[in-house]
Amino acid sequence: MSCCLLDFCRVQELRQVREFLFPSQKPAAAPDESKDQAENELTWDDSDWGSWEASDPKEDGTTAEEEVQQGVPWLQDCVLSLSPCSDLLVIAREHKAAFLSAKWQTDDSGREEMTLAVSWSGTLSSEEGECVSSVICIPLASQKRSSTGRPDWTCIVVGFSSGYVRFYTELLNEDPVLRLKCRTYEIPRHPGVTEQHEELSILYPTALVTIDGFSLFQSLRACRNQVARAAAAGSDVVQPPPLAYKKWGLQDMDIIVDHSSVGIMTLNVFDQMKNASILGGFHASVKGSPPAMSQYMTVGGGPFTGFYYAVEGSSQPLLSHVALAVASKLTSALFSAASGWLGWKNKNEEEPGQKQKPKVEPATPLPVRFGLPDSRRHGESICLSPCNTMAGVTDDFGRVTLLDVARGIAIRMWKGYRDAQLGWVQVSEARGEREIATSPSMPRRHAQFLVIYAPRRGILEVWGTQHGPRVGAFTVGKHCRLLYPGYRLMGVNSVTSQGWHLHTQQVCLFDPTTGVLRSITIPFHLALSDKKSERAKDMHLLKRLTHLGFFRQALESMLTSKNAPVACMTNVTRALLASLKEQDPEAVDESLLQLCSSQLRLLQLYTDVQLLHTPDSSPTETESLSVAGIEEDLARVGPILQRYAELNSRPSVSFAQDPGGPLPVRAFLSQLVFEGGELRVVRGPDTDWTHLGSFLFWGCLSGQSPLERVCETLQQSGISPQQLLSLLLTVWLNREKEILKRADAIRNLHTLLNTLSSMKGALDESWDVQCISPWWQQVRNACVQSESAGAALLAGLVAHRAAKSSITSLAESKFQADWEFVSLELEQWVVCVRQLEDVLALQTLLSLPPPQGSPGGAVPRCSVKSLLESGRGGVADSVAKLIFRQDAAPEMLQDIVQRRVAEQNSEEPVEELLQLAEAEKDELLVCVCQRFPHSLAPDVLWAHCCWEYVVQWNKDPEMGRYLEWSVEYLKMICSPHIQLGISSMMWNTFIVKRFSAAAFLMEKVGKAPKDRLCRRDVGMGDAAMTSFLGSCVQLLQTLMEADSGVEEVSVPELCMEEVWGSAEGLASIAELALQQKAVHYPLVQHHCLLASLLHAAMSFSLRLKPLSLFDSKGKNAFFRDLTSIQLLPSGDVDPNLVAIRQEVSADILRRHLVWELYNQGLDLRAEEVMLEVEDKDVLGSQLLVLTGQRLAFSLLHSQTQTKATMELLARLPPTLCTWLKAMDPSELQCPSVSLQQSSRLVCRVIEMLPENHAQYSIALHLLEAVDSLQEHK
Q1: What's this model's pTM, rounded to 2 decimal places?
Q2: In this predicted model, what pLDDT tens digit does every residue of 217-230 receive, in sequence order?
Q3: Which of 146, 545, 562, 1003 is the most exposed place for a label (fewest CB within 10 A)?
Q4: β-pair type (446-454, 459-464)
Q5: Spans of biased composition, class Basic and acidic residues (predicted)?
Q6: How many Å apart are CA 841 and CA 862, to the nearest integer?
Q7: Interval 786-829: pLDDT, tens
Q8: Spatial distance between the Cα atoms of 844 and 572, rounded to a whole number of angstroms
Q9: DSSP assignment, residue 1193?
């Protein structure tokens, strides 16, 4: 792969554009046509092409006049700008311009291609005698969240010889505009790279104006919105928004013709000290940190190249505000909404008066720091690389100089490139091009290539930097233009660029003779040196070998074809093989001969197997096999297997590639190869492996094919019995749903296993029956690794019986019949079958559907291998997760476990527990607990449930019920040792951090915090925080009770079932709990007291600072490790602290109790408690509000309002009426109380309130209203 030029776009109506910009080159027209053309001169309103459409182009898209004038280099005299998104091209000359927008069209062949068609043409100048000197197209990024990187619209920035820059923009300088350049956001490739800001720079002969990109982006969007609103409203006045810019007066250079803004850079310490010594002498002072500077590079003369540095943050930059010069009046010459242009001024519209030039801001002097002096050399252009580290400069001597931007030196020069045009291409390394040896997150490498177009020679060259060779050269013609924007979308930053795919072209070549735009594609490996470029070496080797192996390529292409029939493949391969055998043996490629022979044998095998599986071939009649022991095993596991099949029979999505359709011949050939004369199956993806196994064995398992003939054919093919066994087991385990529906599948599997076992090479002839057989071990490995529990158990049962029959017949020939035979192989099968039965029961339980309304999800799958690797707590962890998904209450599970204990104490056999064809959740759980008596012991199960619920609560703290149920499961644990460890782990892992945050928050605000503060500091709402603190009290009380009981009970011994004793992995939660250290009881009690205070404060909305109620010792002891010994408060209490504690008196609780009793309608009970309340004033104010709520309910919200009630409401004082309407009776728990009770309550309130109280008058009005209401009743 090498460099290439790709056509990606074509410009339409290019001849019309040229004739519009160069009227002198237009062919002579008839007199009447000339007259019409003069009268209908192109204006803003008349944007069609006039008489240009009269020319009839030829079929190839060119005309005779165009062919004659193709040699005229007209494009070199124009100002061109192509948008980085390639959707807009601007061609301008003097005061005229043409805009070409992208559109898609279908060519004659039906292929979609992008073209650039003229969307507007006309005159841009508004000042007399001014001409277009520079143009750039800036695409503005969309602010919509759904955007994926395409621009919202494109703004055209035009610089004029009069000094104006119009988007339109007001006058920035009175000198002509030399060059416009833009810098947009680039994602930093390394963490140390400074993130550059967006910027638009405008070069004048003696000044440089820079406009901040963010300010420009916002101003352009605001201006475009104003134009749209003004056009919709029919207005012709637009207020341009302000624009901020900096203006630098570039000094110490004679002539400046081009520039580049490098961006913000920071010197290293050495360069900072060097510059300080040069500028300030020996005693110069050096600042602590290097200052950030904006770097600018200019080319011209005296010196040849200049380097300017503007220190950021100093007083040098001037910040002025100028107005965007959008046309002062809107005309009908606005573009369509799709084009997205700003409004322009109508040429025919006369100015109302002489336009007054705005004030020109003075420039801030900026001296040149250093340069490259060459008195005879004059620079013509400068082109900055995308990474801002290098720059290419052209001069009038026909040289191209490569500059190091950071060091300010020339590092390379090319000769013979007069009038050269430069561009850069940055290429990223593909993910697969280099092995990630150090870290997968290692950043990708990038390479910079310099593109040089030499119009004098008509060639385009690509050079590797910094000292790389020329990697590409193309002959393109002498009149092209190299278009290199050097920027991307404006308005993009590090946040909005996430997930965007910026479709921008770096370098394009525009050929005016054909109107084609070409992009340059460069592979990354060309940047590597010759020693490292392994791909380049491979390319040369490939070129040498292209003339070899045509026959092999043709054969391999046919064999991998999707549509070629098997008969065609067989005939072609046979014919090629016969042709090779007839040739001279020395001239024949031996590898090709072997390929033909092997592929012919495979095609024959495919044909034979396919014929055996066709419906026409009737299977041989086999006697009904009665396998000893199988019926017994099926009777034992039949009910649970039936329940498992019912739970797993839900429909699923299937595709055409699933193992059910016929296996394509190319897939068959790709998985079988001949190596050393033997046929071997290549293990590929699981789906391909299953598809191949289904092709070979599914007909036999389903009873549709003759088993003996299929096995005989496969044995003659030379495939090893081990690989055939692997394919058979793969089909059986992966097509479980179909297997469970076929009653004869078990018998057929038994026959296939016996047939494969009898093949040569299956069972080792020297195998000792007291050793483990590799053949049967392969079957066990497949069963224990499979997540298809039902199919794995059936395969294990069948294989167990087949192995037992084989071993027994072998042992009878060696031992006497009186001896009872014992084999290690059979013992392995007993353990394996028991494990598979346990997994089947567990998987059936895990397959239970979640209750309605709960979020669904994939059913967790388990296997023998996964349970052994999950450790000693794997089973309990799986069941705990199921209990959480089922949203089962702790009380219900406790009843199930008690029933299980009762069944264990009874003498009911285990077989009767497995009659679960119609089992419910609890029965399935009892069955699983019976099969795992130690792994699912009550304390172990409760410990895992407790931990699962607290983990889920930590994910969603708003669900306070999860933490409450977690504490309930904790209380259900009988062993105080496990209970103590679980409590300590919960406190340290999940609780203490949020608990301390709640305490500090309440201490800070001095009362029960609001919902917003709770969410900010604790991570949950106020209601959830109240529940959380209540659970903390329960947790700490349980912890104290467990600590008190550990001395009375011995440490429990946690066991595992015998068949699961080899489990390896993480310890269970119960085992971790037993490893926890003992806690310090007084410290736990100290925390429990604080938790009770916090819970009471949140429940009763008390105003207190909880931590202030403790002395310094008590405060320091909070939130420490509960196992540590801390200094706690003694019996002697500071009197000041006692005074603070007395502020939190019981009177607050009594007032709250009185209010609650009245709220419930229990007035007599409330009056009894009221006698103990001390602060009557506060209680009176509280009860006055409650009385108003009762009266408001009777007058305003009652459903039985009478006329008398309405008249009473009208006679109420306005103050009382307004006050009643502000009441909310919905807060009352018992709003319907008798008027006598309300009257009595009002009297109590009047007695409690002093006469000078602010609400005393309202209480009197209330009493009158209640009495009047009683009279009308």
Answers
A1: 0.53
A2: 888 888 878 777 77
A3: 146
A4: antiparallel
A5: 346-360
A6: 11
A7: 999 999 999 999 998 888 887 777 766 655 555 455 578 888 88
A8: 53
A9: I
